[in-house]
Design brief:
The protein is α/β, with parallel strands linked by helices and 177 residues long. The protein contains seven helices and five strands. The chain has two domains: 97 residues, no CATH class; 69 residues, no CATH class. 49% of the residues lie in helices and 12% in strands. A hairpin with a 3-residue loop joins strand 4 and strand 5. Helix 1 packs across helix 3, helix 4 runs antiparallel to helix 5 and helix 5 packs across helix 7. The C terminus is likely disordered.
Length: 177
């Protein structure tokens, strides 16, 4: 993916400077290296047309989806700090990614099977290892109309899976492995 960003960077007009923030599977892949995605969702009120055009040209050359860089991720964005990390910095293109807490909140809200799979390693990366911490994240991230029983139940399930992952890594508490 970094090579594709480099191509986009090289093809942007010299007077153009574009900064995007990555969310979704592409951002998750920086915390879960085995995570594979075929697109790059960016947070954007209005993605620059020049970026869309250049990304489409790169896509044609490499057999990628024409909108492999897209701004479709607009629904369910949490009210949390982005905790940005650097992904790619070129001459004209800067790509940043959101942090694990932010990503975890979006994955809990989305709730698809792949999102729930992503949630456990994101929770571990964010240091959120208890049910209380997971529910607190949701309370901070989303207004009450989005605080459905299904969302809260999903957070509790992820917290249980995190606890299980920690036990598997460290054995039962109080034992020396």
């Amino acid at each position: 993916m970094l090579a594709f960003f480099a191509e986009v960077d090289a093809e942007l007009p010299p007077d153009e400077s574009v900064r995007v923030v990555v969310i979704g599977g592409a951002a998750v892949s920086f915390f879960v290296p085995a995570r594979i995605t075929d697109d790059v969702d960016v947070i954007s009120e209005d993605m620059p047309q020049v970026l869309s055009d250049v990304a489409a040209r790169v896509a044609r050359r490499h057999g990628l989806r024409s909108k492999w860089i897209n701004d479709a991720a607009r629904v369910g964005l949490p009210d949390l700090e982005w905790d940005l990390g650097e992904v790619y910095v070129g001459e004209r293109l800067e790509v940043l990614r959101t942090g694990p807490r932010y990503l975890l909140a979006t994955k809990l809200l989305a709730g698809r099977p792949v999102d729930v799979e992503d949630a456990v390693p994101l929770a571990l990366a964010a240091g959120l290892t208890t049910e209380e911490a997971m529910l607190d994240l949701l309370e901070r991230a989303y207004p009450s109309p989005l605080q459905t029983p299904a969302l809260q139940f999903r957070a509790i399930q992820v917290a249980a899976a995190v606890a299980e992952a920690l036990r598997a890594d460290h054995g039962p508490l109080g034992t020396d492995i």
